[in-house]
TrEMBL record:
Membrane topology category: Multi-pass membrane protein
Species, as recorded: Cellulophaga tyrosinoxydans
Ranges for domain ABC transmembrane type-1: 19-310
Protein keywords: ATP-binding, Cell membrane, Membrane, Nucleotide-binding, Transmembrane, Transmembrane helix, Transport
Cellular component aspect of the GO annotation: plasma membrane
Protein name: ATP-binding cassette, subfamily B
Transmembrane segments: 14-34, 62-83, 141-160, 166-184, 246-267, 287-308
Amino acid sequence: MKELKYINKYFKKYAVQLLLGIFITIVARVFSLVTPSYVKKSIEVLERYGGDLISKSEAKEILLQHILIIIGTALLAALFTFLMRQTIIKVSRFIEYDLKNEVFDHYQLLSLNFYKKNRTGDLMNRISEDVSEVRNYAGPALMYGINTITLFATIVPLMFMTAPKLAVYTLLPLPILSVLIYKISKVIHKRSTIVQQYLSKLSTFTQESFSGISVIKAYSLENKINNELTDLAIEGKNKSMDLAKVNAWFFPLMVLLIGISTIFVIYIGGQQYINGEITSIGVILEFVIYVNMLTWPVAVIGWLTSIVQRAEASQKRINEFLSITPSIKNDVLEDTPLNGKIEFRNVTFTYEDTEITALKNISFTIEKGDTVAIIGKTGSGKSTILDLVARLYDVSSGEILLDDVPIKKLNLNSIRTEIGAVPQDAFLFSDTIKSNIKFGKENATDEEIIAVAKKAVVHKNIMGFNKKYDTILGERGITLSGGQKQRVSIARALLKDPKIYLFDDCLSAVDTETEEKILNNLKNASKDKTTLIVSHRVSSAKNADKIIILKEGEILQIGTHNSLIEIDGYYKDLYHAQLIDKEN
Ligand SMILES: Nc1ncnc2c1ncn2[C@@H]1O[C@H](COP(=O)(O)OP(=O)(O)OP(=O)(O)O)[C@@H](O)[C@H]1O
């Protein structure tokens, strides 16, 4: 229970509703206790009638009264049971909601390194499976727990007061039932976890097959994929059968134990009646009802134990995750507006997971409003520079300054709001084109959206779709071409109108003519903005104020287009190679 202490803060938050729920639970159980005693009383009425102690009409009248009381209290018990669920289960849903939000907020804070180290499936599980296991503890376990305690606290003394010896015999099989249910619950849980794992394997496999359907078809892999899926499904089916087998034991076992207890009551109670130890047959009936009322709560004890154990394990995983501190911390609370000057001082950066040193002792300065192109072979560290400017990672050594202030002394939010980044793999959400562009500025007008789409030379494409800017993208909608995606992503950054633009090879999928148009538009849009353009093409770099050539994480050359084409080296070779390509 050590780990579950974490959610006590939520219990405190919803203390009023919880206390009300507990009170209602007790009331509901007290009402349900009326039935057995009135059943006993009804039998006693019949006994008295049989013994000529009361008349037929009197017996009928009292019987009717008893029946009405039983019906009335049963209805009240039902109403309060309904209210009990309405309060306690509702609270558990609120706690689930709060905990999910807390976990999700924490996800948002964590840096990219965290996402590299953890698999998406695990991240999803923590926020869905683990949180719902904890909810089972905060809701059903709590509710049935209180229910069981209340029932025991009231029924057991009543039984001992009415017939102590019979009470002992009636209660005897119940602990056995509880232990058995506990053991079965554990096996059920173990097997259902395995079934869950197979189900998630199966859904990951099918999802990948759907996503990669074009590759599957192009390489005629349908049969292979079908066979793999069949194997997985057969394995999953076998595990499900294992689960079904133990599940099948649950209810028969309960029925068996209720039966045994009932037989005990009738046999022992009957003997006691014959010996005159109990005065009425009604007591036997009363006890049979008690047995039925106690069986489920007793079974629940075993079940509750396993719920609490599972919740504890889940909360442990959640706590471990919540205790991870974001490696990129925002230590500055006040806003720190930016102008756009960027300086790298002897920056070295090594990726934690791969231990690849992507940048080695790099220094350069970009004045506010300048455009700098970064060119180099793949893997030379170009994107890493952009990621460091946006402080997606912290440098391993050296320093980055924005407006002459060390990046760590600036408000992280201010940095990110002043940066318009267009990543290499433009990511668009399954939403309308308009919403995707609006990410850059939530309150943008349609005119503003159209203006930036025009600048990104994608307006005409969008107008070609049936629903124009309201066209849905992604799985539910149309798939944009690589170049269209890049341009929508550029429009999104332009709409943000930031101080610094980071364009990561974002024109690679457009033809050179469109590239030229976009570059011209960008030149106007980013006149007083600091712009970093990562590219493999000289055409994207030639107009920059400065060109940085990277090789294996080091600066190989730095200069303007005109100066660099004069010097033998990477840039001049690239320029000539691309010139020949163009002429051809
Ligand atoms: N997120 C990451 N985790 C670990 N290693 C990485 C990561 N991103 C890049 N690297 C490694 O760091 C090096 C530099 O990568 P980077 O993406 O900066 O190169 P690049 O010049 O932008 O390449 P490209 O032109 O192919 O985009 C590469 O060796 C790459 O494998």
